[in-house]
Amino acid sequence: MQELETFKLIERISSLLRSEERKKYAAIGLQPVHGQVLEYLGKCNKYSDTHAAVAEYLGLTKGTVSQTIQILERKHYLEKNTSSLDGRVVHLSLTESGQKLIDELKPLDVFKNAEAKVSAHEFDSIGQALQTTLMVLQKVNQSKSFGLCRSCSFFSVEENHYLCGLTQQALDRDDTEKICREHTPAPNSFIDQE
Hints:
Protein name: Winged helix-turn-helix transcriptional regulator
Pfam families: MarR_2
Organism: Methylomonas paludis
Order of helices and strands: HHHHEEHHHEEEH
Largest sheet: 3 strands, antiparallel
Helix content: 40-55%
GO molecular function, one term: DNA-binding transcription factor activity
Strand order of the largest sheet: 3-4-5
Number of domains: 2
Number of helices: 8
Shape: elongated
Domain HTH marR-type: 3-142
Distance between the termini: 33 Å
């Protein structure tokens, strides 16, 4: 059961980071896949800077990679160079503006801020560390927490029944184990510190 909770936390953190990534790339007219291709090309060696290698590394189709590379080339973020050893091989390389773009957009500022807040603390379990990381990321990103009802600051037990302090409505036991859009994390001195 703990493994499933850990997986869910990792999945939620990943979703939050992907959402932030999509916003940043959309602001400059790109998709996250474009950034992934640029990042890969910024790290790979001369044997791995081809269309086929990009497709294999990112798990994309050749068509998707081809379209992505065309867009990035039109925007002057990468360039193609035919191999001097084999004219059938095309090598891809970042332009100066392509390198500048990945330097500006990665790592995500939201993750750097959260990492700085979390790294100074010791945790009893990976689940506790991930939960805290998620909550800090949500706060830094100003996004809703969508947490479990029973972990909300509005959750209470009144006269042997569960109550939502926000709506002033009684809750079934099943409700307390479900995700709520109105979730507000319970006060936590670590997370609330600026």
